Amino acid sequence: MYSNIWRNFISAADKAANTVILAVGPVFIALAVGLIGLATTVYFTVVFPSFYVWDEDYIWTKIYYYLGLIFSIYMVVCIFFHYYMAVRTKPGGVLNVGTEQSDSNDPTIQDLFLELEEYQEYPKTCKKCHLPKPERAHHCSVCRRCVLKFDHHCPWIANCVGHFNHRYFLLFMTYLVIGCFYFALVGWKPFLLSLGETGWEWSMPRPYVALSFLLAVAIGLALGGMCSWHYYLIITAQTTVEFYNNQYARRTAKAKGEVYVNPYDLGPVLNLCQFFNVGRNL
Ligand SMILES: [Zn+2]
Ligand SMILES: [Zn+2]
Predict the structure, then answer these.
(1) Which residues hold their Cβ within 5 A of ligand 2, which is an ion?
(2) Residue 70 CA, ligand 2 centroid: distance in Å
(3) Counting CB atoms within 10 angstroms of each CB, which of 39, 95, 138, 167 has the fewest?
(4) For this UniProt entry, which segments traverse the membrane (predicted)?
């Protein structure tokens, strides 16, 4: 009896946590855009002009200045574009029937699949939304639906990372990590200056510059780790969910004296090509 109460409590807490994650999505997006926007403003008003010095007399400094400017604008456009696309692209649902309870007594498509689950030969269905579950699909308990090639639910994009937006998500992380390290590389002098009391010639207040630099270093390191982890998963043809399932399958196979082979693994290069949808069609 106590275990039932405990189980119900855990399930209610889990549901409440998922509802909170869903509700705070727009706040996280506003926070992410605000922080990236702050760092971008600091970069173009303080870091860039202090690193790329314009000199009328030298052609090379001018070329260097323009190359730096083109690279900087390109990075900012890529960061915001991929972030926007990761947020706005639907990760890929199974069937567009919704999961709300209908008021009428008519059986829904879920009811039909629930009945069919009784028959063992029927294709796999999701035990939570009672809809067909294609290979590599997984149920997101925050969005309360199955998502194709589900990786995880990311509160920072208020969206699942799945089949259709995984590429945007990864490229957003890649550009942001490069941007953070670049910021730290060319912005350490203004940062040190912002900590002092004198020699400040910029209109941007010192605390914003210090905060942006610290954010760039912290996010660059944290996201750099996560980004590397995702590249590892992609070159080994696994989603985050599959990684844990594959670990289990590998251990089980080893105990039987067998070797587990991931059926989606085509080799690092082809896995990468398939993920980025380049090269020959597979
Ligand atoms: Zn489901
Ligand atoms: Zn989700």
Answers:
(1) 140, 142-143, 153, 160
(2) 36
(3) 95
(4) 20-43, 63-84, 168-188, 208-234
Residue for token pair 């889990």 = 14
Distance separating alpha carbons of residues 248 and 242, to the nearest angstrom? 10
Count CB-CB contacts under 10 A for residue 13: 10
Residues with CB under 5 A from ligand 1 (ion): 126, 128-129, 139, 146
**CA-closest candidate to residue 234, choices 276, 281, 271:** 271
Determine which of 3-12, 56-65, 133-142, 259-268 has the lowest per-residue pLDDT on average: 3-12
Q: Which residue has the tokens 């270093």?
A: 217
Please name the residue that has the structure tokens 């912005």: 187
Residue 147 phi, psi dihedral angles, 5° rounding: -125, 135
Report the C-alpha gap between 163 and 70 in whole angstroms. Answer: 32
Take residue 18 and report the two structure tokens written for it: 């998922």
Rounded Cα distance, 180 and 58, in Å = 30
Q: If DSSP codes are grouped into helix, strand and coil, which group holds residue 4?
A: helix
150-204 pLDDT, tens digit per residue, is 999 999 999 999 999 999 999 999 999 999 999 999 999 999 999 988 888 889 9
- Residues annotated as catalytic are 154
Task: Say how many Å lie between the CA of residue 160 and the centre of ligand 2.
Answer: 4
Between the CA of 128 and the centroid of ligand 1 the distance, in Å, is: 5
C-alpha 88: how far from chain center: 12
